[in-house]
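README, section 4: Worked example with a bound small molecule

Sections 1 through 3 covered apo chains. Here we extend the same pipeline to holo records, where the ligand is supplied as SMILES alongside the sequence. The molecule in this example is IDE. Nothing else about the input changes; the structure line simply encodes the ligand pose together with the chain.
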Amino acid sequence: MTDSSSIRFPDGFLWGAATSAYQVEGSPLADGAGPSNWHHFSHQPDAIADGGTGDVACDHYRRYEEDVALMRQLGLQAYRFSVSWSRILPEGRGRINPAGLDFYRRLLDRLLEAGIQPCATLFHWDLPQALQEQGGWANRDSANWFADYAHILFRELGDKVPLWATLNEPWVVVNDGYMHGVHAPGHRSLDEAPWVAHNLLRAHALGVQAFRADGQGQIGLVVNLEPKYAASVGPDDAAAMSRAHAYMNRWFLDGVMLGSYPDELAEMFGQHWPRFDLADMALLLEPFDFLGINYYTRSVNRDAPQNPPPHAESVRQEGAEYTEMGWEVFPEGLTRTLQWVKQRYGDPPIYITENGAAFADPPAHNGRVADPRRVEYLRGHLRAAHEAIRLGVNLKGYFAWSLLDNFEWSLGYAKTFGLVQVDFSSQRRTIKDSGYFYRDVIARNGL
Ligand SMILES: OC[C@@H]1[C@@H](O)[C@H](O)[C@@H](O)c2nc(CNc3ccccc3)cn21
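The generated complex, written as structure tokens:
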């Protein structure tokens, strides 16, 4: 039963949609750009479910003006995108590629002309391959490479970007790229993973310091959070839930908000968990302006001692609705997560920087794409976000994931999250029913 009571968000609440460079741009080597580790990884045999790569994607590098026009049609107030590091610095550091900067200047100018606020993420997983070959995030120098890159963007683009994010979801880089090997660079190393996490957070902190010296506007960190539940009332499953919570939700936020890592991590990594310098942990506390939270689902966990950290596995819930990603539709988890962040980390300003769902959409017919499940997913999560505001959470805005159907990393192009359908054979865009629903939400500033 859909709750039909109308709700209104606070005046000035920011409504946007999000993408990332490697998932939408295509033209990965155009105009002097260097290869990223995702360009390298996606071209490895069997790395991507459907054999897809980011070589073309949504062709956004060339069609960005058409896509900004779509954003205007949707009435977006903001657009969250990421900058391809290897377009700016083809070797990851040193020589700057002016054509790379020029692309983002053109995109920013079109956005500002359209009255759309840019929200730029510096790193959304696509590390220059040249730096990956020097150890990537496992190399302690990576934090300095990132700070130098950030400094260039703040200097060259800073007058056009009011909202910056340093990193998108460091947890996924560690978990998928270094623990399970299903994302670039495809490593499986209990020794590398803790150092990669630490260097990512050092990079974030040095990036914020660079911003304080050269930037304008506000800067934040984007993390993915999932509320963890126990599959049973037994102690083993309760402990598994606690480990899973520490591993996904607390690892990075405790690091940058509390200056320490959860004790459970040293316990679950054992001899693989390093001793971190106190000076490093003090650096991590560099204050930033907002927290970006990416919310999609919850997970229900049971003990799984045979698994790598967190020695837990998720349990499918009978009777629950699931998306094409196998993620339970659980909007109440968003309210709970936002409240948890408020209470644990001192009520920071928060943007929901990603929320959305992959469903099997029908092909466009007569200029329409019926995606009722996505409409209901968005409706339910917007209600949950509003409930969090009612409970006192300092929620400043919401970005739907995603503006466009796009390259879903190791899953290729089969999983579609867009408010706008992309026919990848013709590159034709069609606004889905969920896009028109979201347009009306923005126009009403509510439901
Ligand atoms: O999977 C949908 C999106 C993805 O396209 C974005 O690039 C990325 O920022 C993103 N993060 C999540 C949520 N976190 C997550 C959890 C487990 C594995 C992978 C991602 C979902 N998504």
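What to look for in the output: The chain has 15 helices and 13 strands. The chain has a mean pLDDT of 98.

Section 5 describes how to batch many such records.
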